[in-house]
Task: inverse folding
């Protein structure tokens, strides 16, 4: 019994610390004291429950408006993935944050891979560069060449890309894809 009470106390202290620190961590994006908020990496998603900060913060996202960070386009709860960075605002009930607004920032950036696209699996949401399989998510940002808008449909074999990636559970997730203009075939023919 004593062990369980200790773990509950630690979890409650972690939640309180996370909620107190969130406005300072969020910087300019803080909600100016209008209610509880937290920002962090999603560690678990089950139904409408999201866990952040290695499971220390529990969020009920069932009634939340969910948007993408870059363009504020509406997203579905299924677009919130483990490894994504999110900012959540809402109201507290017990030890659960009931979200009213979730902004999905996408996964953190761990490194960059540059080279020609070797294969594309549009249905599976993956492509490869340098023989490495990279996942595309709804929060992946696409940056075109010379300001031209691009999408996942522009991922074609031979195009040269610069991909910012996050590593999550042994998989590469594209956080940003920049198209370098041209492709390997046209570059070799010049």
Result:
């Amino acid at each position: 019994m004593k062990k369980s009470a200790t773990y509950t106390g630690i979890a409650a202290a972690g939640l309180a610390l996370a909620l107190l620190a969130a406005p300072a961590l969020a910087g300019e994006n803080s909600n100016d004291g209008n209610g509880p908020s937290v920002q962090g990496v999603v560690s678990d998603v089950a139904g409408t429950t999201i866990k952040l900060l290695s499971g220390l913060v529990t969020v009920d996202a069932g009634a939340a408006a969910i948007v993408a960070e870059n363009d504020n386009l509406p997203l579905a709860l299924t677009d919130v993935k483990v490894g994504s960075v999110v900012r959540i605002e809402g109201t507290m009930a017990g030890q659960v944050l009931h979200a009213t607004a979730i902004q999905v920032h996408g996964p953190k950036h761990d490194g960059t891979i540059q080279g020609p696209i070797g294969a594309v699996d549009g249905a599976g949401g993956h492509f490869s560069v340098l023989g490495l399989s990279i996942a595309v998510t709804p929060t992946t940002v696409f940056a075109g060449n010379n300001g031209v808008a691009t999408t996942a449909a522009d991922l074609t074999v031979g195009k040269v890309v610069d991909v910012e990636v996050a590593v999550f559970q042994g998989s590469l997730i594209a956080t940003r894809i920049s198209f370098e203009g041209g492709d390997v075939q046209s570059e070799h023919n010049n």
